[in-house]
Design a protein that fits this description.
- The chain is mainly α and 132 residues long.
- The protein has one domain.
- Helix content is 59%, strand content 9%.
- It is built from eight helices and two strands; from the N terminus they run αββααααααα.
- A hairpin with a 4-residue loop joins β1 and β2.
- The chain is globular, with a radius of gyration of 15 Å.
Length: 132
Amino acid sequence: MKSLLNVALIALLGLGSSACTVLIDPSSGSSATTAGNNSAAFMDRQQQTTEFAQVNLLRLKQDMAAGQGEYLSSLATLLKVEPDRQSEFFAFAQEKFTTLFPSDQTTAEEMLVALNREMRADPRFGVHVALN
């Protein structure tokens, strides 16, 4: 299933970019990029996270509501949540679900802003987020 997720993400990213091809593997924290003549040859972690959330918002919403799932795990990896804290992060995302998604029209960017704000306010994640 994880390889299917990566293939789908790669395909969607390929369709969305004309001069730049980006391959993202959230589980390894690496990306490979080939750029056109005037394109930036680097996609930073924040851009990767935003792109991932935009492409997978519905699945992330479902995983956050359930407090578990592949997409939530990939988001945790992109956010550099340590593996031994990921179960806490999953429970945190489930607990904050109504704050992260206050309406059916909540965008990926709005969800990520709320998630960042809530993580900064939480002592379990605040120090981690402040270092990034």
